[in-house]
Amino acid sequence: LSIDKGNYRHFMLKEIYEQPIVVAQTLRSYLRPLEEQVALPQMDFDLSAIERVVIVACGTASYVGMIGKYWIESMARLPVEVDVASEFRYRDPVLTGKVLGVVVSQSGETADTLAALRHMKASGVTTAGIINVPTSSMAREVDLLLPTHAGPEIGVASTKAFTCQLAVMAALAVNLARAKGKLSASEERDIVHNLTEAPAAINAALMRDEAIQGMAHVIAAARDVLYLGRGPEFPMALEGALKLKEISYIHAEGYASGEMKHGPIALIDDQVPLIVLAPAGPLFEKTVSNMHEAMARGAKVVLISDAEGLAEAGDDAMATIEMPKVHPLIAPLVYAVPVQLLAYHVAVLKGTDVDQPRNLAKSVTVE
Ligand code: G6P
Fold first, then answer.
1. Who lines ligand 1 at CB under 6 A?
2. pLDDT category, 2, cuts 50, 70, 90?
3. Rounded CA separation 141/332 (Å)
4. ipTM exceeds 0.90
């Protein structure tokens, strides 16, 4: 297998652009379009008996877990706990009852996540793994392997593995919801339809690349950047901040929009850009009011929203990035693209080693 950058300047950019294809490839192994169902591979345990879900991962993969918590709780009405693997294994977690333990990992080798998986198994927990490398330790050890088909990811900062993990997490949420009797056939049909549209929506987000590149210099000049979001876009804000930190070395924080007034607002002045991830919907008004609080203190806002949201609040922002209007379930897969591209272009402007940022490793096999 030869892996090269093709016509791209960096692996990261190539991998960002591969997302419509690899997400489609991943979804193909979970969607049953004729039956209008979302399927999982064969398993030797009963999903309907599960009473609680515990998701453990590191870094970008842990944000997939956080987004999964929103999805699984709202769709399947099961309580979900999410933890970073390094904390999980040392806090003597309570694992009684019928728990489904889920690990999420691109490499399948991250030391803390692997140790967390072994801890869960030793505690008698049934495990599933959303994993990209099928030959990895985690892939071999989980009870149920839920593969992502992102292909090899070379850039240290995870991009395509993340969106593929989200696609599989959505499939898991749907299956838990059906097993728990919380999903009607017509709701599932609607979800299949929307997931099928996801690759095209990701593609539409990629079309904003030039606009994003055009605003990168504002971010590149900043010392601190804040990312805000609500609901599943809150973990996306964390992911946006992590991407920027990892490859551009600019200090960035992701916050739940409503938490801004409990601390980070103290940092805001006209030197601090604020990236707001806010698809139109029931939470939009609230996020926009948080955005206005920040603007009253001079913040330069980049609003990432759809046409409906931008029509409502876009004029107030310093810059806007228009996303396609999508079902809330696939919004994180789509909003991943502008935060990845923004981090990428800022890093290129700063002249950093985009694919191999300092001090970071692709796969962290030590604690
Ligand atoms: C490293 C990488 C991150 C990744 C994390 C978890 O820190 O730089 O991009 O999210 O490990 O890796 P995994 O292989 O378990 O997904």
1. 58-61, 105-107, 110, 113, 156-158, 360, 362-364
2. low
3. 29
4. yes
Cα of 14 from ligand 1 centre, angstroms: 18
Does the pLDDT value for residue 1 go beyond 70?
no
Closest CA to 47 of 201, 178, 194: 178
In the block, residue with structure tokens 């796969």? 363
Considering Cα of 188, then 194, then 197, then 203, what sign does the dihedral take? negative
Q: Which residue in the list 5, 121, 350, 362 is annotated as catalytic?
A: 362
CA distance 152 to 110: 16
The predicted model gives 235-264 an average pLDDT of 95
Active site residue 98: no
Report strand pairing: 224-229 vs 144-147.
unpaired
Dist CA 254 CA 261 (whole Å): 13
Contact (Cβ atoms closer than 8 angstroms) between residue 160 and residue 202: no
How far away, in angstroms, is 188 Cα from ligand 1 center? 32
Report the amino acid identity of residue 79.
P
Ligand 1 atom 5, closest CA: 59
Q: Report the C-alpha gap between 194 and 199 in whole angstroms.
A: 10
Question: 139-143, 267-271, 361-365 — which is least confidently predicted?
Answer: 361-365
Can you read off the two tokens belonging to residue 344?
């990428």
